[in-house]
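Pasting as-is:
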Amino acid sequence: MAGQFDLAGRKALVTGGARAIGATIAEALAEAGAAVVIGDILDDVGRQTAAKLASKGAKAGYVHLDVADDAQWEKAVPEVIGQIGGFDILVNNAGIEVTALVSEIDAASFRRMLDINVLGVALGMKHAFRAMRPGGPAGAGGAVVNISSVAATIAFPAISGYSGSKSAVDRMTRIAAVEAGKLGYGIRVNCIYPGLIANEMGVKLAQDIVALGLAPDIDAAVADVVGQTPLGRLAVMPEVADAAVFLCSDAARFITGAGLPVDGGMGT
């Protein structure tokens, strides 16, 4: 990428970056010129993803990071700065989805999802702000992109907890953007609403929908989603990654506190 989408000289951390959407975003950031650190709990896979980026000429690294653990953030951010020489992009991508009817919610599973999807994003913004703001160890401002979901904008059965967690990401994004702007941090904060993707998480959701009796088979479950999508298909991971590159780039330099749908119109 060139011009306003060029991220040369930028330093990025992608949480949940070992695989799936996170890995695709990390690759897109690297292709745009950014140095990238993968933050994940999947150490072997995460290191392999970082090595793949490095093999293509990118400056890349890996840090072990459970996003719901404040102490691990305290340790990880200095490691990121040490590995790639700075920190001015954070993509809060790590997340899980637990399918359950409202009448069958399991408290422990629900709480774990909130810890990762909500607290994890909050802690990521906390430590990004402290590092990127004036006087911080990176101190050059930057961009934060939080991965929400189309689930934050629609009423889809069996994902009330997930929808709630991603709605929280949307609200936190907007408040963090206001704080960062008013306090002169030089940090923009935005979020993305990806549509359903046929990756491991998306396939599991379709299987769960069938198991709960909400669709006769996986094909019907997918067809229902496609039928609600004006562009008539599922999303693919590079489309989400392209949106992340845009929001991190100078092309989005006057955009903050916004949510960008990458959902084919499903949430319209």
